[in-house]
Amino acid sequence: MPKIKKVAIAGASGALGPHVFKALADAGFEVTVLTRSKKPGAYDLAIEVLEVDFTSMDSLTSALKDIDAVVSTVGGTAVDGQTVLIDAAVAAGVKRFIPSDFGSVSTNPKLDKLPLYSSMANIREHLQKKAAVGELSWTVLACGAFLEFVLNMPTVIDFKNHTATILDDGDNRVTSTSMPLVGTAIAAILKNFEATKNQILHISEVIWTQNQLLGFAKELQPGIKWETNKTQTSVLLKESLEQIGAGDLSMPVILKLLKATALAGDTYGGAYDVTDNELLGIKELTADGLKTLVASHLA
What we know:
single chain, seven-stranded parallel beta sheet, 2 domains, CATH 3.40.50.720, three-stranded mixed beta sheet, 11 helices, UDP-galactose 4-epimerase, domain 1, NmrA-like domain-containing protein
């Protein structure tokens, strides 16, 4: 069975990247950071940091020499560019590739043709073709909505201003996992090479609903008046697709698309009732634990 020792990470300075980097280092892997430009003091001197051109096969292949696994946590437009990174990984003899596909419903075939989701679907297809001829193996980690984003951003519940836009009836079930636990799961994937080979794995730290989060907030602060309104995810989806079709790729429109799909509950499978938590060492958060987190975010 192949043993993973050396791991390269792309996107280490993003939102998720630092958590993945720490988990890999803590698990004893030799970590190499791939970056467009080095920033003095960003990493310990013992960490190998390589400047690469992410559009160049030669640059990436050279950087990935002797690397056993690549983890990509890139975001935005860089998701499409992972094809070059995958091809370079094959050329360099990398054994495992974990793409930047850490979402709630990004692996649902119903969404493969939609903006944003199509990029991730194309990357999965590219990896599957490489694996089919034995050129490398892959793992996709579906982790739900990042718990930090759910609690810190006003998209779900605005705890600071005591407002909420309730989607559908507020009972859509959604899986979330904190970013440190995503890092833990990635390290476990690489430790369990055969058991995690060429498949989509699911982890879920907690399943929540908007009504549950709002209920916790009202219970914790009974004297606060909340302002709420309602909208339908189907309406948001239609609006976002029309706006994107008209050329509007602004962040508010992208967020509208994400809300319409990732927070639509069972419509696209946003809650994971069957998971790989045990295999990947993920401990689930209790309702009391979630309530404590909500308490820490109340104004």
